[in-house]
Amino acid sequence: MVARAGATGRGDRPGPAPVNQQLGLVLLTGVVSGLISGICLLDLWFEAHRRPPLGRLIATWSRRYPLYSAGLVMVFGAMLGHFFWP
Q1: pLDDT, tens digit, 9 for 90 and up, residues 1-56
Q2: DSSP secondary structure of the chain
Q3: How many domains does the chain have?
């Protein structure tokens, strides 16, 4: 077989180039780990300065604004449903 310039190794099928999924998973893992670490550090900072923990602040806010919190939960649920729908 003779290699042509611009050949993708997939024969002559047109279409998008293959996606590097490993890079995406590494980035997603890094972002999620960074968010969790940041939340833990923020909670530790609140504890060191004798402030209420982050969980209590979120619970207080959701009790004060039940419609906003329900809407936020619905948006997150729709996003998860969209991401994991076959």
Answers
A1: 555 555 555 566 677 767 778 888 899 999 999 999 999 999 999 999 999 999 99
A2: -PPPTT--SBTB--SPPPP-HHHHHHHHHHHHHHHHHHHHHHHHHHHHTTPPPHHHHHHHHHHH-HHHHHHHHHHHHHHHHHHH--
A3: 1
Per the model's pLDDT, the better-predicted residue between 3 and 83 turns out to be 83
Distance CA 49, CA 84 (A): 40
What is the per-residue pLDDT for 21? 81
Query: Is residue 3 one of the residues assigned to a domain?
Result: no
Tokens standing for residue 39: 């939340």
Query: What domain range includes position 63?
Result: 29-84
> Does residue 7 lie within any of the structural domains?
no
10 found inside a domain: no
